[in-house]
Amino acid sequence: MSKPIVYTDKGSGPVVVFVHGFCESKAIWNAFASALISSHRVVCIDLPGFGETPLVQEEVSMEWFADEVHALIKLLGISDFIFVGHSLGGYVGLAYAEKYSSYLKGLCLFHSTAYADSEERKINRDKTIAFIQKYGADMFTQSFIEPLFLLKNRQTLKNEIAELKSIAKQSSEKGIIATTKAMRDRPDRTHVLASSTIPVLLIGGRNDATITIDKLKEQAQLSSTIVLAEIDECGHMGMYEQKEKTLLVLENFLATCFK
Question: 215-225 pLDDT, tens per residue?
Answer without folding.
Answer: 999 999 999 99
